[in-house]
Design brief:
Helix content: 10-25%
Strand order of the largest sheet: 29-33-34-38-37-36-35
Distance between the termini: 78 Å
Strand content: 25-35%
CATH topology of the largest domain: BirA Bifunctional Protein, domain 2
CATH class of the largest domain: Alpha Beta
Shape: extended
Number of strands: 42
CATH architecture of the largest domain: 2-Layer Sandwich
Radius of gyration: 39 Å
Largest sheet: 7 strands, mixed
Number of helices: 19
C-alpha cells in the first residue's frame, strides 16, 4: 500500500519528520518497507534562488549577449553572461548558482559551472522556465513580481515542496488501515493527537428533486447502499493538485469524475462508483443477485458469464451495470458526454465480493477493501466528500436528496476484557489509565465496568476486574479478548515491554518432545551444507499432472473457486512442484541442481482428508562443478541415497533398510524401511513424468515421511571413550545371484557376529563375461575390533570363517580366493 506523507499530514498534522513517523508505524504493525522522496520537479530546484539584476550592459565581444551583475543575497553580486533578449536592470529573476543541477523540460540534465563566455566570466545562469523544468517557454528569462528577498530558494517561491512516499506492507487483518485516514487513526492512537476529517459542512442537498430509486433485494449481501444524483457535470481533465495527489501514490489520472472517486477511496478507505445516470433505465437501481448464465461486459471490454453467486448493480429492467464492489460495466461508465452522474457509496459483505472477485479473476482497489471489510458508517461521509469535490473540479450540481438504504444497522462488536488478562498476555503491567487512553484513541468504547467471579485456572483469573467494550465495525479483526490485548500492545509498543534478567532456564535432561522447528532447522542446515538449496513451492498444482493410475480422481482435493486451471487441486505429492522448479532452472541453462523442500501433501481419504508433511530431494545434472583439480561426473543413485542416509542418521536412524518397491512416479526406485515402517523412497523419476512436466534431463528424487521421522526422532549425540585397541580390516570377494542385495549380506553378517564386527562396506561390484550368467560379485571390507584387548590372528580367522559359512549357507555365495 502506498501512502503520501504530504497527503497524510492533511488528515493528521504533525511536525515529526517522515522517517520518525515511519518508525512509529512499523512499531505498531504497519510495516513501512521503504521511504522514497518524491519531487514535483527533478532535483527540487536545489541551488536555484531569487535574485535582482543590478546592471545590464551589452557584451563587448557578442552582440546577442548581455553582461549583468546580479544580487543573490550575498555580500558580493555575481557577474553572469545572459543571452535572453528580455533581460534588463531592476528585474527580479531566477538564478541557478554554481554547482546547481538543472533538469530542463527537454534535454539532458546539466550542471552549472563557473565559466568564461567570449572572454567574460560567468558565475551562474539567469533561467527561463523550460531550463528549470517549469514549462515549455524559452522566449526569455522568467521575470518575477515578488517582494521576497534575494537568495530565497526558488522552490519556496514556486511552492514546489517535496513529498515522501511510504510503502507499507499491509497485512490482511488490517483492513482498517487501507487508506490515508486509516493510517492517520493509528498515528492518533500512537501520539494522542486528533485527526482531521475532510470538512463537509458545506454539503447541502435540495429538499426535493427527481431522484434515482434504489431497491436492495439482498440485504445480507448489501447491508447498506447510498447514492447521490448530480447534474451539470462537465467531464474533463482534473486540476493539477488532484492529478499530483494520484500520481504520488502511483495512480494515473483518467478524468475528473473517476479521479475524485479514486481520491476519496485512498483518502477515506471507502470505495465509490460513478454511473452515467442516463444508463439507469426507468430511474430505478436494483442491488440483486445475477441470473445464472447471464452475460455482462465489464469496463475492460471483456464479456463475462455471471453466476447466481454474483451480486450486481442492475437497472430497472434487471440488466447488470456493475459487479458490486468489484468492477463497473462498459455501458454505464462515465464518458466524455456524461452530464448526469449517480454516485454510489455502499457497504458490501466481504465474502460476497471475494467470491465474485476470485471467480472472475478481477482484483481492483475497491475489491481489495471490500473483501477485507470496510466501515459501513463511512458511507455517507465519503459520498458527501466526493460530491463537494465534484462541485469544485467538474462544476457538478446536487440534483436530489441523498438516497441511503440501511435496513439493518450493523452493531458494534461486544468484547469482554479482563484487566489482569492484559498483563498476563503482555507479560508486563500497564496502568489502567494508559489502557483506557489507548482504547479511547482506537475508538473502542468502554460500555461497562464489572467485577467477575470465575473459577481459577491457567486462563481464568478469579475475581477479575473486567470491561465490556464496544468495538466499531471497521476494526474487523478485533472480535476477541486476545485481539483487544494485541491492539493495546501494538500501541503501547513492543519495544516498551522490558526483558526481565531472570527470564532464562537450563535443562540437563533432554525434552521428551523435541521442538519441530529446531529439528527441521538441523536437517535443513545439513542439506544446505551438502550444496542443496531449499525451495518453497505452491501447495496448489495442476490436476493434469496426475494420471488416474497415479492419483485417482476421487483422491484429489479439488479447489472449487480456482483462479487458474493450472492451480485447481491441492498437491497429492511433492514431486511435481519440485520438477516445476527444475524445469524453470533448466530453461535458463542452470542444469546442475540439488534441491530440497519441506512441504505438505493433501489427499482425500475415507471419512475426510489426509494431510502430511514430506521432505523431498531433487538431484539432476553434474554432482559438482567443473574444476581443473578433478573431473566432473553425473549425479547417480548413490548420491541421492547417500544424502537420504545422512538425513536419517541425523534423526537417529542410521540403519534404514532398502527394499525393492513400486512407486507411481519412480523408475526402479527403492523403499526405505525403519523399524519395519516404510518411511520413504529413492529413485530416478520415470521418463513419463519427466515428459509430462517437460523436464529435459534425468532427475533423481527422494521423499521421506517427515511427520513419522519427527515423531520417532532420537537425539544422536552420544559420548563414549575412544577405543584403546586397534581395529583390523579383512576383505572378501563374494559371487552371488543377481537377486541378492548388499543389504541382505549386511544382515547376515551382523547376525553372525554381533560382538567384534564394527562395520562392513562394499567397495567394488562386478557383472560381466568373467562370471556365469545371472551372477554378480561384491567386494566387501569388514572392520573388526575388540574394546577389551588386541585381536589375535586366531580370533580374526574364527570370525571370518564364521562369516564365510553363513554367506555360503544363507546367500549361496561363492568365496573367490
Amino acid at each position: 500500500m502506498t501512502i503520501s506523507f504530504d497527503w497524510l499530514k492533511t488528515l493528521f498534522p504533525t511536525p515529526l519528520p517522515a522517517a520518525e513517523v515511519g518508525a512509529l508505524l512499523t512499531g505498531s504493525g504497519l510495516e513501512v518497507e521503504s521511504l522514497t522522496e518524491l519531487e514535483s520537479i527533478p532535483g527540487g530546484l536545489r541551488g536555484v534562488v531569487l535574485g535582482t539584476v543590478l546592471t545590464c550592459e551589452r557584451h563587448p565581444d557578442a552582440d546577442k549577449l548581455s553582461l549583468t551583475t546580479v544580487s543573490v543575497g550575498d555580500a558580493t553580486p555575481r557577474q553572469i553572461v545572459c543571452g535572453a533578449p528580455n533581460v534588463a536592470a531592476g528585474q527580479r529573476v531566477v538564478v541557478a548558482l554554481e554547482g546547481a543541477m538543472l533538469h530542463p523540460t527537454a534535454g539532458e540534465p546539466f550542471k552549472i559551472k563557473k565559466s568564461k563566455i567570449r572572454g567574460a566570466a560567468s558565475e551562474g545562469m539567469i533561467c527561463a522556465e523550460d531550463e528549470i523544468g517549469l514549462g515549455q517557454s524559452h522566449a526569455g528569462i522568467l521575470v518575477l513580481d515578488t517582494d521576497l528577498p534575494d537568495g530565497t530558494p526558488a522552490a519556496d517561491y514556486f511552492g514546489l515542496g517535496s513529498d515522501v512516499i511510504f510503502e507499507i506492507g499491509l497485512t490482511p487483518n488490517r483492513a482498517d488501515a487501507a487508506s490515508h485516514y486509516g493510517v492517520a487513526r493509528d498515528l492518533r492512537a500512537l501520539l494522542g493527537q486528533p485527526t482531521h476529517l475532510p470538512d463537509v459542512s458545506k454539503f447541502a442537498t435540495p429538499a426535493a428533486g427527481e431522484n434515482i430509486k434504489v431497491t436492495i433485494e439482498d440485504d445480507q449481501a448489501c447491508p447498506r447502499y447510498a447514492g447521490l444524483l448530480l447534474d451539470n457535470v462537465k467531464v474533463g481533465p482534473s486540476p493539477e493538485w488532484l492529478q499530483r495527489r494520484l500520481r504520488s501514490i502511483g495512480l494515473s489520472p483518467i478524468n475528473n469524475v473517476v479521479d475524485v472517486t479514486n481520491f476519496v477511496l485512498h483518502e477515506l478507505g471507502q470505495p465509490l462508483h460513478a454511473f452515467d445516470a442516463a444508463a439507469i433505465t426507468d430511474g430505478h437501481l436494483r442491488v440483486k443477485r445475477a441470473e445464472a448464465g447471464e452475460h455482462f461486459v465489464t469496463l475492460d471490454n471483456v464479456a463475462r458469464t455471471l453466476s447466481a453467486d454474483d451480486l450486481v448493480i442492475a437497472d430497472g429492467n434487471g440488466a447488470p451495470m456493475a459487479l458490486a464492489g468489484v468492477f463497473g460495466g462498459k455501458t454505464s461508465g462515465v464518458g466524455a458526454g456524461t452530464t448526469r452522474v449517480f454516485l454510489e457509496s455502499a457497504y458490501f459483505a466481504p465474502a460476497v465480493v471475494r467470491r465474485t472477485s476470485q471467480a472472475h479473476g478481477l482484483k481492483t482497489d475497491a475489491s481489495f477493501r471490500f473483501e477485507r471489510g470496510t466501515d459501513p458508517y463511512m458511507v455517507p461521509l465519503a459520498l458527501q466528500r466526493a460530491a463537494l469535490l465534484l462541485q469544485e473540479v467538474a462544476g457538478a450540481r446536487i440534483a436530489a436528496p441523498v438516497v441511503d438504504e440501511f435496513p439493518h444497522p450493523i452493531p458494534n462488536s461486544e468484547v469482554r476484557l479482563r484487566l489482569p488478562r492484559v498483563a498476563q498476555l503482555i507479560g508486563q503491567e500497564i496502568s489502567e489509565a494508559r489502557i483506557r487512553e489507548i482504547l479511547t484513541n482506537l475508538d473502542i468504547k468502554i460500555e461497562e465496568e464489572i467485577t467477575e467471579k470465575t473459577p481459577n485456572s491457567s486462563f481464568l483469573i478469579p475475581n477479575s476486574k473486567a470491561w465490556l467494550l464496544q468495538v466499531p465495525p471497521y476494526r474487523v479483526d478485533v472480535t476477541r479478548e486476545a485481539d483487544v490485548v494485541e491492539e493495546i500492545l501494538r500501541i503501547y509498543g513492543f519495544n516498551n515491554v522490558a526483558l526481565r534478567p531472570h527470564n532464562s532456564a537450563s535443562f540437563l535432561s533432554p525434552f521428551p518432545n523435541p521442538d519441530p522447528e529446531v529439528v527441521r532447522q538441523k536437517v535443513a542446515s545439513l542439506l544446505s551444507g551438502q550444496g542443496f538449496s531449499e525451495i518453497i513451492t505452491n501447495s496448489l498444482t495442476n490436476s493434469q499432472y496426475f494420471e488416474p493410475a497415479d492419483a485417482p480422481a476421487e483422491n484429489l482435493v479439488r479447489i472449487l473457486n480456482y483462479n487458474s486451471q493450472d492451480l485447481n487441486v491441492m498437491r497429492p505429492a511433492l514431486l511435481h512442484s519440485g520438477l516445476e522448479v527444475v524445469r524453470h532452472n533448466l530453461n535458463r541453462r542452470q542444469r546442475d541442481l540439488k534441491l530440497y523442500e519441506f512441504g505438505r501433501t493433501y489427499q482425500r481419504a475415507a471419512g475426510g482428508y489426509l494431510e502430511k508433511t514430506v521432505l523431498g530431494l531433487w538431484l539432476t545434472g553434474n554432482f559438482s562443478a567443473e574444476s581443473w583439480q578433478h573431473p566432473t561426473r553425473k549425479t547417480t543413485f548413490a548420491d541421492a541415497a547417500g544424502a537420504v542416509q545422512q538425513v536419517l542418521a541425523a534423526l537417529g536412524h542410521p540403519q534404514a533398510a532398502p527394499q525393492p518397491t513400486q512407486h507411481p512416479y519412480l523408475a526402479g526406485g527403492v523403499g526405505l524401511l525403519v523399524q519395519n515402517q516404510l518411511i520413504g523412497h529413492v529413485g530416478a523419476v520415470s521418463p513419463a513424468v519427466l515428459k509430462r512436466l517437460d523436464v529435459s534431463q534425468p532427475v533423481w528424487y527422494a521423499e521421506l515421511d517427515w511427520d513419522w521421522l519427527l515423531k520417532k526422532y532420537k537425539p544422536t549425540l552420544v559420548a563414549r571413550e575412544l577405543p584403546r585397541f586397534p581395529e583390523v580390516r579383512r576383505d572378501l570377494s563374494l559371487v552371488v545371484d543377481k537377486g541378492v542385495t548388499f543389504e541382505q549380506l549386511r544382515t547376515i553378517a551382523q547376525r553372525a557376529e554381533k560382538k567384534l564386527l564394527h562395520g562392513l562396506n562394499v567397495f567394488d561390484t562386478y557383472e560381466g563375461d568373467r562370471l556365469e550368467a545371472g551372477k554378480k560379485s561384491y567386494s566387501v571390507s569388514f572392520t573388526l575390533q575388540d574394546p577389551a584387548q588386541t585381536l589375535t590372528d586366531q580370533a580374526i580367522d574364527q570370525v571370518m570363517q564364521r562369516l564365510i559359512q553363513q554367506f555360503e549357507k544363507q546367500a549361496g555365495a561363492l568365496i573367490r580366493k
